[in-house]
Design a protein that fits this description.
The chain is mainly beta and about 290 residues long. The strands form four sheets. Strands 4-3-2-5-6-7 form a six-stranded parallel sheet, with helices on both faces. A six-stranded antiparallel sheet has the order 10-9-20-17-12-13, with no helix packed on it. The chain has a six-stranded antiparallel sheet with strand order 16-15-14-11-18-19, with no helix packed on it. It has helices at about 30-40, 80-90, 115-125, 195, 285-290, and strands at about 5, 15-20, 45, 60, 70-75, 95-100, 110, 125-130, 135-140, 145-150, 150-155, 165-170, 170-180, 180-185, 210-215, 225, 230-235, 245-250, 255-260, 265-270, 275-280. Helices cover about 15% and strands about 40% of the residues.
Amino acid sequence: MLIEIYMESDMMKKILIVPNQFKDKHFKVTLRVVNWLISNGVIVYLPFELHKYKELATCDFLKIKEVGIIDCCFVLGGDGTIIQTSRTYFEYEIPMLGINLGNLGFLAEIELVDLEGTLDEFLKGNYIIEDRMMISASHNQGHFLGHALNDIVISRQSISRMINFDVHVNNLYVNSYRADGVIISTPTGSTAYNLSAGGPIITPNNEIIVMTPICPHSLTARSIVLSGQDEVKITFKHPRNSHVNDLLVTIDGQETTRIYKEDTIEVKKAPKKVSLMRLINNDFFEILRKKL
């Protein structure tokens, strides 16, 4: 993970604000942030699709293809909003700062309790940038499914039925599993579904892929920790009388694609990373203690 430290000479000039309109009713927090930033000499934009809301009539807007002019992006919501935004602007590699309007907020750096005070620290340049690894999923030798900051999950629509699947890493056979599914996680996602399924917590400064079976029907099936350079391939086996056409690939718990028994799923490190802005004095283990 690359960590860059910024000081006052690197002050932010142009900021894109991406709010979760369902968590920020009538854009009250959004306008609070926008007005504070403008009063501190920052040029502020919002995503173009929000231009229809009358509450934001005085704001300026940018289309996705125009975001190359932006210095960074402030995301208002919870971790899910940050994850969604990381995929939306994946190609542009814009540093992101999370303002927590949700619950846990592992990725969101700022709490509303001290919103303006913390924003002031960032405008002064008292922050670091962490580059977080992402993973990509494809199927059938190259048909792209999506990028994930947290995880890629393979499961069934019928939750009462198990999946039979084989796992290969770098084309080498690893094992066969009978389970409710499998989670393939980044270090960022290791504290999400992976943790709930009994997988290990990985510090975010690593480039590691974690594969964790979900409720395996075995006494010995455990998570496997892989290098970020490894490529995982999953194929499916189907005993007689099984329901075989309700398989799903879910990206970050947000985007779902139906797949079939003949499909092969490939997962590997994505070609780009997500850059998260963090306060210099915040550390991962303190956040872990507070949130869990």
